[in-house]
């Protein structure tokens, strides 16, 4: 226990993601700088060595040519001339005869370690009282005795050529020191950069942690601060803020739904309880008691219907109904709905008109689309005055430029329901698709305020959008639904083909009338 306790703070420090990231950055930067500078050092030093070796070999070949041309006198004169012209005083020459006697050069004796002609020798050299290092190479002059061992000097005239490496050693030392100091500076920069990265990373993470912690403790107004330069940190902050705004809106929606449920369901529950209590206390016979029970059951059925609608909306919003998608012609579905509501409209003295294409290919859930249109027709008839007209139209059109549809969207199905009823204000239309929302004009009509919320969920499930607009008088509800290219192809319809004949806009009862739309 005594050995592990002091290590805990150190281990806890290394658990920091920002510290590990900054250390990895610093180590990577330092190692890359070491590799880069080592490459420069080896390349430069290697170039200097190759340059010296090339110069010595070229010098030896030239001297061998002079030897062939004039023998020892010519070779000795050439060496003296080169020594006189050697301003750097770094050239080394020596020529000896087969007995080892000195013939020419600026070296008094043949180095004992130089025994082969296929090797380079680095030997100490003293010039002007200064010790240095010389790069030497021995050559066997042409026409002399051959060696008994490959590369070994045996007898004959021998030539020694070299260069004093003192200046290059100084340059090498300067290069080494410079690169070392450069590596130290780069390492310091790497450490500073790692500390800066650690600070930036830690600040960003702490900002996120503080914001999320404040929200977790109930401060839903807290947001990530923005620097304003549009960099990645601002993008992360904007994404987090957008997520928080979405969470707040969802929580507000849940709160409103809860309040609406409590408000809208309290009345029927209280009414049912009152009816049952009144029947229990004052019912004079079984018929009165049965009637009270039936009224209470009706109120409870309405409550059950509200909860079923809420569950259905939640199921639609989760996308669970996409498994029921199929390709079908929407025209018969809309006519079935119109037939269903024709009698209701006639009862209220309302005319029902249809205006549809001959074929309406669509890919989606048949029953959900049927329910959405039925809800809209029901609302239109419910809020329309007597002797007015409700119009249902459905047409397919090419995708408008700039409109975003689903990847499978090849065209747009436009379904409109127009009525001449009480309409809505701009403020009411903005909130019309919220759950349990009811406009002031519709407070006294029966309903739960879930119809348009159900329609919106169904339309969004199909990748479309719902639009509400006013007309004088009345309201227009427009559904824009993307039509899959596969559905268009199955019915042989291409909205982009100019040679394709236009769809005839007619109703189910076109054989009874000359116009394209009919009153049901």
From TrEMBL:
Alphabetized InterPro entries for the sequence: HAMP_dom, HATPase_C_sf, HATPase_dom, His_kinase_dom, HisK_dim/P_dom, HisK_dim/P_sf, Sig_transdc_His_kin-like_C, TCS_sensor_his_kinase
Membrane spanning stretches: 21-42, 180-201
PROSITE patterns in UniProt: HAMP, HIS_KIN
The HAMP domain, residue ranges: 199-252
Domain Histidine kinase: 260-485
Main localisation: membrane
PANTHER family per the UniProt record, alphabetical: HISTIDINE KINASE, SENSOR HISTIDINE KINASE YKOH
Keywords from the named record: Kinase, Membrane, Phosphoprotein, Transferase, Transmembrane, Transmembrane helix, Two-component regulatory system
Coiled-coil ranges per UniProt: none
Gene3D superfamilies membership: 1.10.287.130, 6.10.340.10, Histidine kinase-like ATPase, C-terminal domain
UniProt-listed Enzyme Commission number(s): 2.7.13.3
Enzyme class: transferase
Protein name as annotated: histidine kinase
MF (Gene Ontology): phosphorelay sensor kinase activity
Reactions catalysed according to its record: ATP + protein L-histidine = ADP + protein N-phospho-L-histidine
The keyword Membrane is assigned to this record: yes
Location of the protein in the cell: Membrane
One Pfam family, short name: HATPase_c
């Amino acid at each position: 226990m005594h050995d592990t306790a002091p290590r805990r703070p150190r281990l806890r420090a290394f658990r920091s993601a920002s510290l590990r990231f900054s250390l990895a950055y610093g180590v990577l930067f330092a190692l890359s700088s070491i590799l880069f500078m080592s490459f420069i050092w080896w390349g430069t030093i290697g170039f200097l060595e190759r340059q010296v070796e090339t110069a010595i070999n070229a010098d030896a070949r030239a001297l061998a040519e002079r030897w062939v041309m004039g023998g020892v006198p010519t070779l000795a004169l050439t060496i003296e001339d080169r020594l006189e012209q050697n301003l750097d005083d770094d050239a080394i020459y020596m020529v000896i005869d087969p007995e080892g006697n000195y013939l020419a050069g600026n070296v008094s004796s043949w180095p004992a370690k130089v025994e082969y002609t296929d090797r380079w020798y680095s030997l100490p050299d003293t010039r002007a009282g200064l010790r240095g290092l010389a790069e030497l190479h021995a050559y066997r002059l042409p026409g002399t005795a051959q060696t008994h061992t490959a590369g070994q000097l045996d007898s004959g005239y021998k030539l020694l050529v070299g260069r004093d490496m003192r200046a290059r050693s100084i340059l090498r030392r300067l290069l080494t020191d410079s690169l070392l100091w450069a590596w130290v500076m780069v390492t310091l920069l790497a450490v500073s950069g790692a500390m800066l990265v650690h600070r930036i990373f830690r600040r960003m993470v702490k900002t996120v942690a503080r914001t999320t912690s404040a929200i977790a403790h109930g401060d839903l107004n807290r947001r990530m601060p923005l620097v304003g330069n549009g960099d990645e940190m601002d993008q992360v902050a904007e994404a987090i803020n957008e997520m928080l705004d979405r969470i707040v809106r969802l929580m507000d929606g849940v709160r409103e739904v809860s309040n609406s449920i409590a408000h809208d369901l309290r009345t029927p529950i209280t009414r049912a309880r009152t009816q049952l209590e009144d029947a229990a206390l004052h019912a004079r016979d079984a018929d009165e008691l049965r009637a009270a029970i039936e009224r209470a059951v009706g109120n409870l059925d309405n409550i059950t219907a509200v909860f079923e609608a809420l569950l259905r909306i939640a199921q639609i919003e989760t996308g669970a109904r996409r498994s029921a998608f199929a390709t079908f012609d929407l025209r018969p579905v809309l006519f079935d709905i119109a037939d269903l509501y024709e009698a209701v409209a006639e009862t209220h003295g309302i005319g029902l008109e249809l205006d549809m294409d001959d074929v309406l290919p669509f890919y989606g859930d048949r029953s959900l689309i049927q329910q959405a249109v039925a809800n809209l027709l029901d609302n239109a008839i419910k809020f329309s005055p007597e002797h007015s007209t409700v119009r249902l139209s459905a047409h397919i059109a090419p995708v408008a430029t700039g409109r975003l549809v689903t990847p499978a969207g090849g065209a747009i199905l436009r379904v409109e329901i127009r009525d001449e009823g009480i309409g809505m204000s701009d403020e009411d239309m903005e909130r019309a698709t919220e759950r349990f929302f009811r406009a002031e004009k519709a407070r006294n009509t029966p309903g739960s305020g879930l119809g348009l919320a159900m329609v919106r969920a169904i339309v969004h499930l199909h990748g479309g959008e719902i639009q509400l607009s006013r007309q004088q008088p009345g309201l227009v509800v427009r559904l824009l639904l993307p039509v899959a290219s596969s559905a268009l192809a199955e019915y042989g319809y291409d909205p982009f083909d100019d040679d394709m004949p236009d769809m005839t806009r007619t109703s189910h009862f076109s054989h009874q009338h000359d116009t394209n739309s009919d009153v049901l």
